[in-house]
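TL;DR need structure tokens for one chain.
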Amino acid sequence: MSAINATKSVSEPLDGVYLRSKDINVWFGERHVLKDVNLQFPVNSVTALIGPSGCGKSTFIRTLNRMHELIPNAKLAGEVQFQGENIYGTDVDPIQIRIQIGMVFQKPNPFPTMTIRGNVLAGLRLSGKRNRSEDELVENSLKAASLWNEVKDRLNAPAGSLSGGQQQRLCIARSLALDPVVLLMDEPCSALDPGSTLRIEETVREISKSMTVVIVTHNMQQAQRVSDQTAFFLSEDNNPGFVVEVSSTNDIFRSPKDKRTEDYVSGRFG
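>> reply
TL;DR here they are.
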């Protein structure tokens, strides 16, 4: 059995990277939307993906746990390597990939009529994984998502009774309950108020102490606040999106190597 089909059992890799993309190209039908994306995501860090709308950031992040292949007419070339193995290999179970590489979407998507507690445990039950103490798991996951103090006295209330920001943190808790190695976040704060955004950002920094986080954001200040590494994507003249440069977040925003990066992060376009 492939190591990435097995129950989670990981040790820190020698090169400090669990997840990397190699020459990723993506098409929707005949339209080539991403070209030759090579990125690696260090352990216990946050990588921000920035760039104008339509340059392929959200498409790319979906390739990292095989969500991309659920889109009709989507095609992919290249490899995504997780723990040294290609997640698109014929012997790899995509469900197991999505357990170990979790995802939080732009719009909060809790099960609205299910209880708060039930939402946290939903992924666990759908995956068939077992936990000896569900109460402890619920508490720990909600604490990790900075939501416990707000909901601990109403765990049996429907998730639909929560605010938008609380629902997004509940979705994070649901992902964390599966104990992922990597958490992907596709613009998780785009529809939230500043207070909720701050809480999500605090959560991102906290969980990155124990896992790899990749976040798509259009908010340049957010990228600077939460990320250790930043990759700048761009699409020019209707050509496929590509990575202009990737470096430490400090270097991208203070001393980028490419003029296009400087123009984007300084607000001259995008």
